């Protein structure tokens, strides 16, 4: 009898616990007729103004809803403001824009340095080599003979037409993409793009038996080695 009584009491206490928990949970939940309660409410509903995000919660704000959204709406940037890592690039993603970039973007704005070549190699092997090949000859992994997936061989940078092309050809392609290649503007910063271009030029020089390094550039006249860059700075000063 005592065992049956103890079992009944346990069942009854369990039932009361569940009932109390349910009631407490419901009383804490906000609803049409219930304000609800929160432990440290600013952890669940922020009191901060957050632009482009519907965060108004009437029980945790110091102003009415209209005022909140007026304060939270995005503001017009200061005139002349430029977003971080943005660039001024006046050449549109058209054939005319591409050709203009090829004609006008000739000199590399950064010198040839060992650091740039090393960083360019790392980035090239991450983003480019799988298609264009580690040697820049268009024989990347995706065009391999044993089941390659690429329908057409990518550009062979060691061909004369690419060696003789200005830096604008490469920069425009990285910026917007070209043919089956997509844009890499969201993956490479402006400086990183030039590092990749420098590295591509070094691959071309290697294929031609020429030099493209921080000491000398016998490939073209469109990039200045670090040593000459420093000499030019001394002359300008």
Secondary structure: elements and pairs:
Layout: H1 2-28, H2 65-72, H3 95-104, H4 114-127, H5 129-132, H6 160-163, H7 167-176, H8 190-208, H9 226-236
Structure commentary:
The chain has helices at residues 2-28, 65-72, 95-104, 114-127, 129-132, 160-163, 167-176, 190-208, 226-236. It is mainly α and 237 residues long. The mean pLDDT is 80. The N and C termini lie far apart (105 Å). 45% of the residues lie in helices and 0% in strands. The chain folds into two domains: 2-72, no CATH class; 95-228, Cytochrome Bc1 Complex, Chain D, domain 2 (Orthogonal Bundle), CATH 1.10.760.10.
Describe the structure in brief.
By secondary structure, the protein is mainly alpha-helical.
List keywords for this structure.
single chain; 237 residues; mainly alpha; 45% helix; 9 helices
Oligomeric state, counting identical vs distinct chains:
single chain
What is the strand tally? 0
Strand content: under 5%
How far from one another are the termini? Answer: 105 Å
Stretches where pLDDT is under 50 for at least 5 consecutive residues are none
Question: On the 0-100 scale, what is the average pLDDT?
Answer: 80
Q: What would CATH call the architecture of the largest domain?
A: Orthogonal Bundle
Radius of gyration: 32 Å
Based on secondary structure, the structural category is mainly alpha
Question: Could you state the order of secondary-structure elements as H and E?
Answer: HHHHHHHHH
3D shape: elongated
The CATH superfamily of the largest domain turns out to be Cytochrome c-like domain
CATH class of the largest domain: Mainly Alpha
């Amino acid at each position: 009898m005592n065992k049956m009584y103890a079992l009944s009491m346990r069942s009854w206490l369990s039932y009361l616990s569940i009932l109390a928990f349910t009631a407490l949970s419901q009383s804490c939940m906000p609803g049409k007729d219930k304000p609800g309660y929160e432990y440290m409410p600013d952890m669940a509903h922020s009191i901060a103004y957050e632009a482009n995000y519907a965060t108004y919660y009437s029980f945790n704000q110091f102003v009415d809803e209209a005022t909140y959204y007026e304060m939270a709406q995005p503001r017009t940037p200061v005139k002349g403001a430029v977003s971080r890592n943005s660039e001024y690039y006046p050449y549109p993603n058209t054939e005319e824009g591409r050709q203009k970039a090829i004609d006008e973007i000739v000199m590399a704005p950064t010198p040839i340095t060992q650091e740039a070549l090393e960083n360019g190699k790392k980035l090239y092997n991450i983003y480019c080599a799988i298609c264009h090949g580690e040697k820049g000859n268009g024989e990347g992994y995706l065009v391999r003979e044993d089941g390659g997936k690429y329908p057409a061989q990518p550009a062979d940078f060691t061909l004369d037409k690419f060696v003789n092309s200005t830096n604008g050809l490469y920069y425009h392609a990285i910026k917007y993409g070209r043919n089956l290649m997509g844009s890499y503007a969201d993956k490479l910063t402006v400086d990183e793009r030039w590092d990749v271009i420098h590295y591509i030029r070094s691959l071309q020089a290697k294929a031609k038996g020429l030099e493209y390094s921080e000491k000398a550039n016998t490939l073209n006249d469109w990039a200045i080695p670090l040593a000459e860059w420093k000499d030019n700075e001394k002359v300008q000063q």
